[in-house]
Amino acid sequence: MGYQAERRRWRVRLRDRHGRIHGAGTMLDEEYLLTCAHVVEQAGGPEAELFADFVGLPDTPVGIAKVVEGGWVPAGPDERGDVALLRLAAPEPGVFPAPLHRMPLPDELPVRAYGFPPGADDGLWYRGTLTGEAGPGGEWIQLTRRPEYPPIDAGYSGTAVIEEPGGRVVGMVVGRYVAQGDPASVMIPVETVLGYLGGVRDWGDGSPAVDPTFSTAFGSAPHDADYDLLFARKLADWLRDKANSAGPPVWVLVTGEPGSARAVALDVGVVLGDRERAAAAGSLRDTVPEGTVPPSGSVDLAVDAAGKSVDEVRRRLAERLELTPDHGGPVSHSVRTVVVTAIDDAVEPDRLVGEVIAPLADRAGQLGLRLALGFRRESSPGFSTLRSLSAGAVPPGGLASRISLLDKAVAELAALEEHAVTVSERFDGEPEPPARSPRRRGLVNQLRTAADEGDVEWAGRHVGEVEQRVAADLTAGNAAKTRLDDLIEQRTALRFRLDSYSDKARKLGLVEDPLLDVLYAKAWRLLYEGRCDLAAATAAVEEYGDAICGRDEGEPA
What we know:
Strand order of the largest sheet: 1-2-3-6-5-4
Number of strands: 18
Distance between the termini: 94 Å
CATH architecture of the largest domain: Beta Barrel
Shape: flat
């Protein structure tokens, strides 16, 4: 059965109990179907029954569908999400499952979709191309219609977006936006849907963008001491700058061993740059530091080479990027970003570099690839080989961009140090914080002066060392801020407890009690006058509170 016939068997029209059409759905098998959460909301909400018309299956009874447990992800305040999984009350054996497919989504990819706009209850085709990322965090893909076809309108939401000529489902129409001129339409990529609805992954095929060893096991933002903030920002900028064709297409970098601050930053950036993993990562996106979140979909492939054979890495690249084994293929006009890390921990790292990575780097520009090639150790022979072959020894954006990032990082370090001085002066036993930012500012100025005077080679040779020093200082500064802010929170909590005890004393009529006055004054001085000794202040507040409790229980004054 060709996909022209198959697609008729997965297509459904969704109505409410009054017969009003609210959108479309896509059958995943004989029982389950996919649509937008806002379609369900318009039809009565997640507890309502929706009526599914199998428009491509004549004489098939109407199906009754409801949202399944775990299948409800309504649009949030920023409009992320908006997906729903429904189940028919009775299976429909005539259905053919839709081929949900993971793949990089290049600009200008021809697509089509079938919806039910007002006045066309039996449906109309839309044809167009993918235009690029849109919407919240780049989670959507914008669609540009072909002039001879009608624009997407109400009634298309929830329908499958089919790539041509293969007929695979690569997304789901989520809505349209009317601005000046033609309405803009958008879809949710299949990989994003699979991330939000983990139960749907069994219906997805195609090679995932990111290896499972890139961790999402972060319950909240990584601890400052375990996170290279400067590198994380550089990585996010590099991933965000996908459309920039001016810089070198290859970036060779050192991550350190697993669990190092830079390796953690790479893991987080890759996870948040993948559509599927970012959607599944929950609150991670909202808790990592500002400026370190790359757009969704900015990572097209990430391979962890540790423990993999040459053939395994080659096959992974070929499957996801649809390359021939020798990296042949036509010149690409759509940029795809690939991360390969732990190259020196592969089974045969020298062979991997010589047979796979180096040839791929050599043709990266022609194939439309941007490569971030990570090694655990700078001493690895493969690292030197790729540095010597590649113009990517200096990360894309060039020396000027790296110095500009260092300027911002040193300014942030100075602000952290100023905060540390202000807070440490308020607490007994806190040493004077180190002032590293003036020295780091001097190093950055040396780099800038050398570059401005034409000694780019010297500046390029030393910029990495300065970046490492500033990154380590930022890590220490953020860790110190966390610790000092905790001291402020402890003192604030003690002040609140002291006020609460004082209120209790007033209510008990003990405001004239001499002993309580002495105890209160002692605690107040420790919390409000001079440098605070938290241990002594805690003991004083507790002593005051215990004395009030004793009066309340009838102890003599």
